Amino acid sequence: MASSFEKFQKRRVISSYFSVVLSIFIVLTLLGALGLFVINTEKISGYVKENIPMTIYFKREVTDTTAQAFATRLQNSAYVKDLKFVSKEEGAKNNPDLMEDSEVFLEGENPLLDSYDIHLKSQFVDKKHIKDIEVELRNDPAVADVIYDIVLVELANENIKSISYWVLVVSAVFAVVSMLLINSALRLSIYSHRFTIKTMQLVGATKAFIRRPFIWKGIKLGLIGAFFSILVLLYLVHWADGVLPELNIWEDWIPTAIVLAGVLSTGIIIAAISTFFATQRFLNLRTDDLY
């Protein structure tokens, strides 16, 4: 009978430890994912902004030499990330419906103009900078028109700011909730040892002596949960780098390493603090309250 009870107690302890590790793993994985998003917000913002195109149309009388000289000036400018020349013939191939209409109204003449599609550097994609760039380009005698989506530019800037703000708010709230969840799981694991704690206290053991093995056990559980969390986060970074190689997450590995180190240290610190307070609670209980 005693053997069955011991097995039951052992299974109960193992189950409580598993719950602690699982709670720490889930919490740290979500916190780590939020951390990775936050440190890469600037890259994501830049990626979105640098994919908003601006099209510069040339006048019909502009020669190839003039267009090439204009392209050289664009390449040497501080605000252009990349550019691509689109001839009116290439534009016609990309707009077959427009060409069908032009055959009716313009007797087959190509109504399109030679143009350059450019992408601006992210720091220049805001309402003020992009307007100044538009004015500068329109002042060039070779330019017929400059077209870009100002609404998309404003939405990109507003949404990125809003998302960054709410991610920080959610991270702060989640950090508090995670502390409570891990503390609750650790308290349940220590609950099964409450009689052992009180017995040690009754025979004269100090509170620090009684707490020490429990805190070390909590730290070990925190390390295990953090280890599995880091594995998942590494896979997440690998996946994100494959989907969006433009972000160069692996090349700029220091911020990612900082987040992973933060996950590891957070697992240890939260587990140690939670174990301390959970053990302290049972140390302060009267013997009658244990039941």
How does this model look, in words?
By secondary structure, this protein is an alpha+beta fold. The protein folds into two domains: 2-45 and 156-290, no CATH class; 53-148, 2-Layer Sandwich (Alpha-Beta Plaits). The chain is 71% helix and 9% strand. The protein has ten helices and four strands, in the order ααβαβααβαβαααα. Strands 2-3-1-4 form a four-stranded antiparallel β-sheet. Helix 1 (2-39) crosses helix 9.
- Helix and strand composition category: alpha+beta
Q: Please report which band the strand proportion falls in: under 5%, 5-15%, 15-25%, 25-35%, 35-45% or over 45%.
A: 5-15%
Net shape: rod-shaped
The overall pLDDT average reads 76
| Counted beta strands | 4
Q: Low-confidence segments, ≥5 residues, pLDDT <50?
A: 102-106
The number of helical elements comes to 10
Number of domains: 2
| Rg of Cα set | 32 Å
How far apart, in Å, are the first and last alpha carbons?
22 Å
Order of SSEs: HHEHEHHEHEHHHH
Q: What's the structural blueprint in terms of helices and strands?
A:
Layout: H1 2-39, H2 41-49, E1 53-58, H3 64-76, E2 80-86, H4 88-94, H5 96-105, E3 115-120, H6 127-138, E4 143-148, H7 150-191, H8 194-202, H9 207-243, H10 253-283
Antiparallel strand pairs: 1-3, 1-4, 2-3
Helix pairs in contact: 1-7, 1-9, 1-10, 2-7, 7-10, 9-10
